[in-house]
Amino acid sequence: QDKLVESGGGLVQAGTSLRLSCVASGRMFSNNGMGWFRQAPGKEREFVAGISWRGDNILYADSVKGRFTISRDNSKNSLYLQMNDLQPGDTAVYYCAANRRAIASESRSSYNYWGQGTQVTVSP
Q1: CA nearest to 2, candidates 31, 23, 33, 21
Q2: How far apart are CA 8 and CA 33, in angstroms?
Q3: Which of 94, 110, 121, 122 has its CA 20 to 30 A from that of 86?
Q4: Torsions phi, psi for 107 (to 5 deg)
Q5: HSE (CB half, 13 Å, CA atoms) of 115?
Q6: Residue-wise pLDDT tens digits, 81-116
Q7: Beta strands of 1-124 (E only): which ranges?
């Protein structure tokens, strides 16, 4: 069964770091681009970062550039998001997603598998 499971969220203070992980089971990780999205209360789910299957193309939302780093380990079917200098505006549920294609993409509609999400809360 294809499944994505996120972990690593938590409650932290502004200026600190967290590392999110996502493990894929089934066949979805093979040849799939992957991405991280987030959704704050009362807001639309928004793109955070995306990475191609080979890791040679990476995209970031302007709001996280220079602070967040997406990476993947295909041998472990795992996706990561290193988040540094977290701010209260980063508070959201973070979702891991698998793309239909091998590309990195900002388009939410291009992702067809989603994890259940992990909560990240940043206090001032």
Answers
A1: 23
A2: 21
A3: 110
A4: -80, 120
A5: 28
A6: 999 999 999 999 999 999 999 999 999 999 999 999
A7: 3-7, 10-13, 18-25, 34-39, 46-51, 58-60, 68-73, 78-83, 92-99, 111-114, 118-123
* Burial of residue 43, with CB atoms counted within 10 A of its CB: 0-12 exposed, 13-18 middle, 19 or more buried: exposed
Check: CB of residue 63 under 8 Å from CB of residue 49.
Answer: no
In Å, the largest CA–CA distance within the chain is: 40
Is the pLDDT at 34 greater than 70, yes or no?
Answer: yes
Q: Specify the amino acid at residue 75.
A: S
